[in-house]
Amino acid sequence: MTSPSAPSAAPYVVIPAHNEREALPGVIHEVRTAQPGAEIVVVDDGSTDGTAGLARRHGADHVIVLPYNSGVGAALRAGLLYARRRGARAVVQCDADGQHPANAIAELVAGLGAADIVIGARFTPGTRYRARGPRALAMRLLAAIMSRLHRTKLTDATSGFRAFGPRAIAVLSRELPAQYLGDTIEALTIAKRARLAVRQVPVQMRERQGGQASSGPFQSALYLVRSGAIVCLSILRLVGARLARRHGRGRGAGWTGEEAAE
Amino acid sequence: MSALTVTGIVVAVLAAVWILVLVARRKLDVRYAAVWTIVGILLIVAAVWPGLAAGVSRLLGFAVPANLILSVGFLVLLAASIQTSVQLTRMEHHMQRLAEELAILKTEVREASGENGRPGEGQRQGPADAA
Predict the structure, then answer these.
(1) How far apart, in whole angstroms, are the C-alpha atoms of residue A154 and residue B68?
(2) Residues of A with CB below 8 A from B131's CB?
């Protein structure tokens, strides 16, 4: 554990958690072991199972308790905001269900040297995780769209295992929408609008170690529809922002400038 | 004056008075009252002067004046409802921000008072745990 307020190279590891009693302690210990210097921030997103107290007892450095369940986007945004105010230079987003291996955090953070957002990606050769059905279709489509958008190979646009550099922290702590998928897909379109560089590194993911995944056929179809709608809206916004910029009243400079100087 | 005209005027005046009372009691903000006030005035005008609706109907090609009134009413309600949804969304965004700020503030207060729950430090179950 490092001194709390000094801006340092040690990453802040933000773990959004909603009723994650089972897996969270293991995740905290794993992160602590892999990154002894990291500041572990657990954001309890309105849990009803005492996740916050559990996180404190298992040595999370900071526990932020949202008053009601607001979605992963909101939890991540709160974590980013908190880290930014404490002078964080790097924030790593990590799921509380244990599917993200903490020993890959170092690699993600290292990637920030050449990018503002580094995504830990499944689906790359040599990794095991595979989704099926409409969900897989949605994920492939999203990956293709985001790759085009950012002009780099992104195979896993919905991965919630990411590292954010200072510029990304400033932009996303302000802009990230609260809703489901806001933390993953919309984060990438917002990044595009703010001209942030996105890269990916392959990561070997595990099965989730607690809680339940939402992956019935109906949920998968719903997921396809929702992610499709979000992508369409996001692209509409991008086009709008580009038009506004071209006509001189763009907010272009404001995306990264205004609050970063705070 | 026909019975229908009287009924129309009574209903329109009641609606206008209701809006006024709500505004006076601060249960309805003037900003939102504006649209309803205009609706009330239109209602009174239409009730006092039935020929107006008939005239406008002919002008716009409605065969029956009632269709014009119902169409206009529907559109006004649609616009008002969308406007309400927009306000609601904005409120939700503000509330979300406040919730995050509050949560961060609580964390900072807790840490400043030395109860951040690291091993060996204060571990008592505060109110935040129950929340």
Answers:
(1) 55
(2) 52, 65, 67
Is B58 inside any structural domain?
A: no
B90 found inside a domain: yes
| Residues A12 and A83 sit within 8 Å (Cβ to Cβ) | yes
Min distance A81 CA to chain B CA atoms (Å)? 8
Cβ neighbours of B102 in A, within 8 Å: 67
What value of ipTM does the predicted structure carry?
0.79
Contact across the interface for A65 and B128, Cβ inside 8 Å: yes
Residue B129 is assigned to a structural domain of this protein: no
Q: Which domain holds residue B9?
A: 1-48
Global pTM value: 0.78
Per residue in A6-17, pLDDT tens?
434 689 999 999
**In total, how many domains does chain B have?**
2
Instruction: Report the distance separating Cα A113 and Cα A116, nearest Å.
Output: 8
Residue bearing tokens 């897989």: A136
Q: How does residue B121 score in pLDDT terms, banded at 50, 70 and 90?
A: very low
| Gap between the Cα atoms of A191 and A234, Å rounded | 11
The CA distance from B45 to B50, in Å, is: 8
**CB-based contact A62:B116 (threshold 8 Å):** yes
Residues B69 and B39 in one domain: no
SS3 A61: coil
Laid out side by side, the sheet with A91-93 consists of A62-66, A39-45, A12-17, A91-93, A162-164, A117-121, A198-202
Residue B75 corresponds to which tokens in the numbers above? 């559109």
Q: Assess if residue B126 is contained within a domain.
A: no
Rounded alpha-carbon distances, angstroms, from residue B78 to A187, B29, B68, B85: 33, 20, 15, 11
**Same structural domain, B37 and B70:** no
* All domains of chain A in start order, with CATH: 12-257 (3.90.550.10)
